[in-house]
Amino acid sequence: MIAFILITIQNGRENEIAENLRKIPEVKEAYTLYGDYDVIAKVEVKNLERLNELRNEILKENKGILYTETLICAR
After folding, report:
1. pTM: predicted TM-score of the whole model, two decimal places
2. Is 24 in contact with 5 (CB distance < 8 Å)?
3. Alpha carbon distance 35, 53 (integer Å)
4. Ramachandran region, residue 64 (left: φ > 0; alpha: ψ -120 to 50; beta: rest)
5. Are 64 and 9 a contacting pair, CB within 8 Å?
6. What distance in Å separates the CA atoms of residue 13 and residue 64, rounded to the nearest whole number?
7. pLDDT at residue number 75
8. Which helix (H) or strand (E) is 31 found in, with range?
9. What is the pLDDT of residue 63?
């Protein structure tokens, strides 16, 4: 399962959080953005349960995240 996690972050923490995300094995790519969201992460997981766990881990381990939106690819 492939999904994209769009993340809104407190000012000044975008690069730090994108770098932290790149260290997670399921995160295949992570980029800082201009616009409504600050970071986008492409993730690949086995199932919806793991996607939910991963999102919770990302929130727990990265202070400064204000909001996330997860888009699951239909293929």
Report:
1. 0.91
2. no
3. 27
4. left
5. yes
6. 7
7. 75
8. strand 27-32
9. 87
CB 68 within 8 A of CB 6: yes
Which residue shows structure tokens 């407190």?
10
Helices within 1-75 (DSSP H only)? 14-22, 48-61
Burial of 36 (0-12, 13-18, 19+ CB in 10 A): exposed
Residues forming beta bridges with residue 17, ordered by sequence position: none
Q: Helix, strand, or coil here: 16?
A: helix
Per 3-state DSSP, what percentage of the chain is helix, strand, and coil (rounded to 5)?
30, 35, 30
How confident is the model at residue 47, as a pLDDT? 96
Give pLDDT tens digits along the chain (75 positions): 999 999 999 888 999 999 999 999 999 999 999 999 999 999 999 999 999 999 999 998 888 899 999 999 997
